[in-house]
Amino acid sequence: MSRLLRIEIRKNFSYPAFWIILGLHYFFLIFFLTNIDNLSGSFNFSTGEMENMDISLVPVFKFPDIWQNIAYLAGFLKILLGMYMVIAVTNEYQFNTLRLNLTNGMTRFDFLYSKLIIAMIISLFSVFILFDIGIFAGMIKNEGGISQEIFQKISFLGAYFLEILFYMVLALFFSTWLQKTGISIFILLVYPLLIEPLLRWQVPDHIDKYFPVKAMDNLNVFPFPKYFGFPVTEVVPVDSVIITILWIGILFCLSFLVIRKKSL
To answer: CA 135: distance to chain centroid?
Structure first.
């Protein structure tokens, strides 16, 4: 494992896209969350039950709700991390570095496992950044004092970790299967927004929750209606955690089956 990690670190640290894409992700993450109060005046949400929900009225940084709130908001930026995984994998095919690694003794499983390790490291670092944002922004914004239950809902950071890891493994699967950067990114964007919703169309709720993106989305549902008197799940659903973990394993295994059969 340490050998694979050293190889991946050497690859990624010398790759400009690693610093550019991840730098943009963490910049937008920090900028967006720390300026949400200033930006919120531009956002209003409407649903079938509520009209013109003014997000500027939402105490985003109130402890302990802050962990659920920022984890939900940060989830929108995961697309950049998925795009990086696609680029990192498809470049291995494009520049024949995968074939060179296999010639030098790396197995196909080692190749996929090394990408999984990088995905886990990036996901953990994202959680670390989000934790720091939560602590510092929460300390500043909670003028009435810090709640003794400051870490009560910190499990949502674990849900955020699973969300990022799942999305990067999904990107790993698409890029291993399709091997082309453009089409892999396109499918990665379209699948959660169009393909899976069509597959779930008219599927009963007790089956719907087993679809991969749906399980990921259920880790942390839209939390802000609770401030307007509407019920919202305020704990991480255990069944969604289990289903998401299972899908991470399934997608990794499917990626291995694909790469084992494909000609390199």
So the answer is: 21
Q: How far is the CA of 109 from the CAs of 105, 115, 232, in angstroms?
A: 11, 10, 41
pLDDT tens digits along 92-146: 988 888 888 888 888 999 999 999 999 999 999 999 999 999 998 888 877 655 6
Short-list 240, 156, 161, 167, CA closest to 205: 240
Q: What is the pTM of this model?
A: 0.91
CB atoms within 10 A of CB 64: 18
d(CA 153, CA 64): 6
Rounded Cα distance, 16 and 33, in Å? 26
Structural domain boundaries of the chain? 2-23+59-261
